[in-house]
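Input.
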Amino acid sequence: MSTIIEQQTAIVIEQIKANPQLNQFVNSVLPTPKAFRGSGEIKLVILGQDPTVKNQKSLAKIKTVLNLDKSGNLRNYLSEICKGLGLDLNKNVYATNYLKNFFVKPPTQFKDNDLFTKFAELWLPLLRKELAPFGNIPVITLGQPVLSLVTQRGAPKHVRDYWGYNNEWKSGKTLPFKFIDPENNLLNHNIFPFPHQPSIAKQFYRSRLMKYVDFMRDYL
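Output.
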């Protein structure tokens, strides 16, 4: 992250800590992971949800968004997408999280279904500022929760709806691929929803992955 974004991230963290409705959910001891920025021309933005993972012991080891400074299954998955787009993850990608704070446990374990929305309201202005330098560069969202935070009311909120899901997809009956244009999302970029790495093992997503990547190439 740039110095300005880092400073404003710290300000939002302080706002969260001062909010009695939100501070109980936040681990404010760990430093916010830095955004990942490739060494060359940025041609793709990857947007994650938040830095929290299930293994609490590994939280302190997360220094970069999506652990892109390390090898692993997620990095391999994103490298595969980039390769299909004709891009190099190490050169052409900027990656950041929508919610930049650590939670005390994975947010899916909280009973408050509106928790994401409450945090998103604080983080959205900063995210927009962070992405502003990247103009019309497309954004990949990872997973359904972060997708639901960037869509306008009425837009499909499931990744599979953008990948042409149909109940009869196994027999080849699929719907057209879709993306979210700037007029219909909160980030003012073309957004292409992708499942998070664990879900790509599902047969539907695995069978459609490179076809959706090919579809996306036309919009780079």
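Helices lie at 3-17, 73-84, 89-92, 115-131, 144-150, 159-162, 203-217.
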